[in-house]
């Protein structure tokens, strides 16, 4: 297994769930539950990157490490870049960005994107996708789709239904089973060298219109490798309903001694 680090961005501000990283899930803050999942991935180091002292204190209390970062960062990628500089990691270090609101993220998915990046030296970034066969999901702009090239690198990400089966839909038929429709999973592995360069990259129009940060890297010519998984990972926590699901899942796992 290739050595890699995990960084978990965790902002205190949230419009839908204020203080989200500290919300309890089966007796521990959500961000700690995320760190516990990351600890099972084989990562050499795990750091929570936060702009809030209470989050850092909760992380330390449960035996994990935290970096205090600036409040002005507009994205988790910027926050990762600051951690890379604070820790002095070398340019070839692989850093996996695990979102702080995904307490059920599979550890094997974390290691898979890290290994994919290690196996593809031509790529600056690696991410993940899984197949979708539901036409409603295909047309849903809240679900990001990806199209890959022959080497498994990303050609494009979009909220639009891509690749679009023109003749099939023109004939009034449903989504063809053989159409390679991939749903993007929001986890990334980066080379530290890319994170150092990221803040200097001019935002791209396609990034701003699609509201997809990864399009900036593609627009500037960076390759994004994609590992395709068989199953969708559990959903993250964006709403109060998501929080109830996460809590119920953990309670069930704990009752089973898992």
From TrEMBL:
Coiled coil: none
Annotated compartments: Cytoplasm; Membrane
GO MF term list: 3-deoxy-manno-octulosonate cytidylyltransferase activity
Catalytic activity, EC: 2.7.7.38
Pathway the protein contributes to: Nucleotide-sugar biosynthesis; CMP-3-deoxy-D-manno-octulosonate biosynthesis; CMP-3-deoxy-D-manno-octulosonate from 3-deoxy-D-manno-octulosonate and CTP: step 1/1
Pfam families with a match to the protein in the record: CTP_transf_3
Keyword terms: Cytoplasm, Lipopolysaccharide biosynthesis, Nucleotidyltransferase, Transferase
Reaction equations catalysed: 3-deoxy-alpha-D-manno-oct-2-ulosonate + CTP = CMP-3-deoxy-beta-D-manno-octulosonate + diphosphate
Class of enzymatic activity (EC top level): transferase
One CC-aspect GO term: membrane
Superkingdom of source: Bacteria
SUPFAM superfamilies the record matches: Nucleotide-diphospho-sugar transferases (SSF53448)
HAMAP family per UniProt: KdsB
Family, as annotated: Belongs to the KdsB family.
Job description of the protein: Activates KDO (a required 8-carbon sugar) for incorporation into bacterial lipopolysaccharide in Gram-negative bacteria.
Protein's name according to its UniProt entry: 3-deoxy-manno-octulosonate cytidylyltransferase
Species whose genome carries this gene: Ferriphaselus amnicola
Designated gene of the protein: kdsB
């Amino acid at each position: 297994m290739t050595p890699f680090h995990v960084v978990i961005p965790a902002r205190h501000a949230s419009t839908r769930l204020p203080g989200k990283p500290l919300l309890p899930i089966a007796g521990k803050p959500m961000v700690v539950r995320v760190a516990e999942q990351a600890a099972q991935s084989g990562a050499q180091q795990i750091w929570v990157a936060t702009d809030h002292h209470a989050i850092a204190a909760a992380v330390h209390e449960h035996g994990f490490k935290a970096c205090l970062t600036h409040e002005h960062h507009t994205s988790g990628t910027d926050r990762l870049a600051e951690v890379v500089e604070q820790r002095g990691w070398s340019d070839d270090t692989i850093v996996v960005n695990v979102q702080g609101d995904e307490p059920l993220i599979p550890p094997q998915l974390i290691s898979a994107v890290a290994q994919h990046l290690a196996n593809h030296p031509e790529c600056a970034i690696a991410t993940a996708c899984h197949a979708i066969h539901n036409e409603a999901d295909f047309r849903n702009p809240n679900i990001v789709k990806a199209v890959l090239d022959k080497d498994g690198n990303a050609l494009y990400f979009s909220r639009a239904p891509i690749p679009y089966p023109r003749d099939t839909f023109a004939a009034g038929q449903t989504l063809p089973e053989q159409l390679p429709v991939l749903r993007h999973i929001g986890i990334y592995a980066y080379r530290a060298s890319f994170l150092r360069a990221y803040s200097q990259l001019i935002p791209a129009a396609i990034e701003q219109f699609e509201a997809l940060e990864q399009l900036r890297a593609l627009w500037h010519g960076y390759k994004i490798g994609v590992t395709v998984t068989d199953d969708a990972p559990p959903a993250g926590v964006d709403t109060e309903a998501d929080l109830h699901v996460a809590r119920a899942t953990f309670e069930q796992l704990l009752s089973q001694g898992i």
